[in-house]
Amino acid sequence: MFPDVAVTGLGVIAPGGIGAQAYWDLLSSGRTSTRQLSFFDPTPFRSRVVAECDFSPDLHGLTPQQVQQMDRVTQFAVAATREAIADSGLEISPEILHRCGVSMGSAVGCTTSLENTYVDASSRGRDWLVSPEGISPALYDHFIPSSICAEVAWEAGAQGPVTMISTGCTSGIDAVGFAWERIRSGDADVMITGAAEAPISPITVACFDAIRATTPDNDSPECASRPFDLHRNGFVLGEGAAVLVLERMEHARARGAHVYALISGFASRCNAFHMTGLRPDGAEMADAISCALKEARVRPEEVDYINAHGSGTRQNDRHETAAFKRALGRHAYSTPISSIKSMIGHSLGAIGSLEIAACALAMENDVIPPTANLRTPDPECDLDYVPLVARAQRTDVALTVGSGFGGFQSAMVLARPARTAS
Questions:
Q1: Residue 231 designated active-site
Q2: Which of 169, 223, 359, 381 is an active site residue?
Q3: pLDDT tens digits along 320-360
Q4: pTM for the complete prediction?
């Protein structure tokens, strides 16, 4: 019999909400945090709307040396880790050091520092051969994504299994899924897990411009992210991090920890089809959902809320709608669904963990966050996407899903702690 795995701590760095409480205040109010790109001159780009975090590393206790050495993504990860551990009340004592591990996700790692270093070292691309003189020794850490989870492990003092997950836009959900599996397998009693991303750099913006995946709605940035709306035309690039403390339920109970939710099921699939394309029937996502529900011992009709991937591209929204119908049958039509990307944008690898945190907070507060900007529903997306305004509702079982370039499809089931699986 596998042990129950509890979420006992949350740490969040998000656009419009630094800290878990501020994040929930944003989501439950239906406010959007998308705005004109301010990190660099947006003029040359087709899409100039982003979701930036108003993050001050010094306010999170990062020293000037840490700020100099760490990429922004690592700063996010460390700051979120500090909040999550403090929120959990967990003391990582010598007795549990080797039973505490880390699993972090990121799609593009330290992109910002890598790009900035190249620009500086090559005289903005003029020089083919570059000199190592003047390049920070931290460049190696920026080149190796595992430096992110190493910093989190050092921050937490965790000496158990430490792993970096990079599966594109499902990295955040997959990292938490991997952590869940480590506890269930008996490798760890505690896992610090989640994902971080700071991709708002010229190279990333240019990449998504090239494939026209991001929205060109630059005149009204607050309304630019419109999942499931008939007039949607691409996603809004975002950034952020969410870190969760997971514990074996017996371990959490023994120390009297507050439990937000249980992670009850997880599954991941790949469509083996196309780097960016999706099959219209949603079969692979549906299979991941069905497997996650089976693992959780939850029937489709017991799902109370779905946190959708909901990127705001026509291809994804229709694919996802088909997957919900395929996996849940008629129950899909009566299940509230929402996309928080309408408020905080799409932070690539980090978004899955931010969405898991949103599910835990929705269960904690008996409120379902809305899909902002959904004013004209797409007839092909004919489910209950909770438009514009949050909805008061008790949620005993929440399903969250992710879809990523490369064909990755992941699903996770969260359950209210008092619920008995059937």
A1: no
A2: 169
A3: 999 999 999 999 999 999 999 999 999 999 999 999 999 99
A4: 0.96
